[in-house]
TrEMBL record:
Subcellular location: Cell membrane
Cellular component, GO, one term: plasma membrane
Ranges annotated as biased composition (Basic and acidic residues): 1-14
Domain ABC transmembrane type-1: 81-265
Location of region: Disordered: 1-21
Biological process (GO), any one: transmembrane transport
Naturally occurring in which organism (per UniProt): Actinacidiphila oryziradicis
Topology versus the membrane: Multi-pass membrane protein
Descriptive protein name: ABC transporter permease
Length: 281
């Protein structure tokens, strides 16, 4: 009897998991298909226009030509994509660590918050278009200046959102833990960090989209390899089709990294998914 009940429970759990997977797939398709359809319509219109109007490919190549030439030059595209991705990941990694350290410092020290936060805001008024060439002059054409541009581009949204998340912590929960004898570090780990996670991931999604653009712009300022310098070279050669191909690769990298933030959020914040499913049921 007990064995039979155990089997029924296992079967019920399997059914529930299958239902959750189906719901997840349906929600994903519902979120994805509208922009995909819109993009398909735009590309189809672009193709029809370039074919019907006989537009010079050096001015506006057709999507079919962009795909064909991009595939024919895939080796060069890949060789220039790898440095851009490396600069993006390393620069964003530095930004990630620095944002956490600064946000924690601002949260723990009111004096640091009063002194540093206005400077962080003021730093965003400095145009990166002026800073990037200076970094190239100071540090050369290697990896470091590109990393720094990515770090400067992505740091503020992360740090500002984290600081706002820490400040939004439920005071009642903090008082409850203090009454139970919890210290400041324990309260920070159990309450403040989980409370800041939605803010953090909002900033993460903004920053990650800036990261690839920052790397490409830094390469425009000066580089030996990368999608930015590749686009610049193809533009000078009037290979607009390859410029579009490089732009498509850049957009693909940004979209892939943006999507990865949602996967990371599901891993880091499993309780949010449970609450969402409970609200929908």
């Amino acid at each position: 009897m007990a064995e039979h009940q155990g089997q029924e429970q296992q079967e019920q759990q399997r059914r529930q998991r299958r239902q959750r997977r189906r719901k997840t797939v349906r929600r994903a398709l519902t979120a994805v298909w509208p922009p995909v359809v819109l993009l398909a319509v735009v590309i189809a219109g672009w193709q029809v226009y370039t074919s019907a109007a006989g537009v010079d490919p050096a001015t506006l190549p057709s999507p079919a030509r962009v795909v064909a030439q991009g595939w024919a030059n895939r080796t060069d595209l890949w060789d220039n994509t790898v440095p851009t991705l490396q600069e993006t990941v390393l620069g964003f990694g530095v930004s990630f660590v620095a944002a956490w350290l600064v946000a924690i410092l601002l949260d723990f020290s009111p004096a640091a918050r009063r002194g540093m936060y206005p400077l962080l805001v003021a730093s965003q008024t400095i145009p990166i278009v002026a800073v990037a060439p200076l970094l190239i002059i100071w540090f050369g054409f290697g990896l470091l200046p590109k990393m720094l541009v990515v770090t400067l581009t992505t740091f503020f949204p992360l740090a500002a959102n984290l600081a706002a998340g820490f400040a939004s912590t439920d005071r009642e929960a903090m008082r409850l833990l203090r009454s139970l004898g919890a210290g400041r570090l324990r309260i920070f780990r159990l309450v403040r960090v989980p409370s800041a996670m939605p803010y953090f991931f909002a900033g993460l999604r903004v920053s990650i989209t800036y990261a690839v653009v920052g790397a490409v712009f830094a390469e425009y300022a000066g580089a030996e390899k990368g999608l930015g310098i590749y686009m610049q070279a193809q533009k000078s050669a009037f290979r607009t089709d390859l410029v579009f191909a490089a732009v498509a690769v850049t957009a693909g990298l940004s979209i892939a990294l943006f999507g990865a933030t949602y996967l990371l959020q599901r891993l880091v914040m499993p309780w949010e998914r449970a609450l969402t499913e409970e609200d929908r049921s």
